[in-house]
Every structure is written in structure tokens, then in C-alpha cells.
Amino acid sequence: MNGGDPDAAGVAQPKRADARRNEEALLGAAAAVFVSSGVEAPIREIAAKAGVGTATIYRHFPTRADLIVAVYRHQVEELAAAGPELLAAGPTPYAALERWFDLFVGFVVTKQGLAAVLQSDDPCYDPLHAYFLDRLEPVCARLLEAAAGSGEIHSGQDPYELMRGVGGLCAGARTGRRYDARRLVRLLVAGLRRPR
């Protein structure tokens, strides 16, 4: 008998709100450090940025791979949730589309910091690209459909193609100070607009 202990029965307990907030702060700090210092940055640097001890990071993420996967998935989920929120907030579907792609640029630049690891032979990273497409392509499609439905952009845009295009524009973001990926992506998204 397990004495009524749900953990003993293998049922995962939902995280407390403060534990969720701490984990989100830790993942945000890790993402920022990955961009600035690379994925091989010392764990103590991530801990310092998050305002926690290294033991806290290892308690949540026993290996560096666990942390990298968690950062990636967390950022994908934030982007997926942002699409409907931006559409609801307005002021127009096109404004929501512009804002979402600005957030998408931030994600892609962080992802580039992870690129060497994500393309490694470690099988734990294999499902991440499919996860990215499964979660974000429908969100992008919904934003495009809403903006086309309001008459703000040309209809028939391919979300996958557009996301790949943005990824290509972001590829040079880390190469030089005169390269502004956000500005170039704004120009790309502006090119979708219907003439008034």
C-alpha cells in the first residue's frame, strides 16, 4: 500500500506557482546566457543570472542536455501562446502578426546559440525540430489567416515558407554589428501587406 501518497502511485503532482515562476526565471536566464556566452557557458553563470545556486539548477535539470531541451521547449511554448494572445489584444491582425514575428526573431537568434548542440549526434535533440513545427506552424497559419481575412495582407501565404525565410534572415544576426535581423524581418512582413 502506498498510504494514499499520489507520488508513490506514480502520479505527478502539479508544480506550485512559486516553483513554476522559479523554473521560468531559470529558463529565461539560461536562454540569455546561451545567446551571450554559448551553450557551454558555466552553469554558475546561468545560476548567477537567475539568482539561484548551482544546486538548484542541477535539481531541476540534472544534465546540460536536460537544460537545453527545457529552454528550447519553454521558448516554443511561449511563442505558441503568444499568437492567440496577440490576436486577442489587437489592435489589428496585422499588428499581431508583426509583433509575433518580432518575438519569433528573438527565439530564432536564441536557437542559433543552440544550433551546434541541436545538430549533434545526441538523440535527445532529435524530436525538437518536429516539436517546433508542430507547435508554431499552426500559430503562424492562424495569424496569417486572420490578417488575410481582415484584408490587411495577401491571402495564400505559406506559414512554413515564411518561417524558413525569417530563419534565413536571422542567420546573419550574430555575424556583425551592422546586420539588423529585426529590421529585415519587419521589411519581409511589410511585403505581405495589400496596397491600400
Automatic annotation (TrEMBL):
Residues 20-79 form the HTH tetR-type domain. It holds the Pfam family TetR_N. Signal peptide: none annotated. InterPro entries: Homeodomain-like_sf, HTH-type_TetR-like_transc_reg, HTH_TetR, Tet_transcr_reg_TetR-rel_C_sf, TetR_SbtR-like_C. Keywords: DNA-binding, Transcription, Transcription regulation. Residues 42-61 bind DNA. This is TetR/AcrR family transcriptional regulator. It comes from Amycolatopsis cynarae.
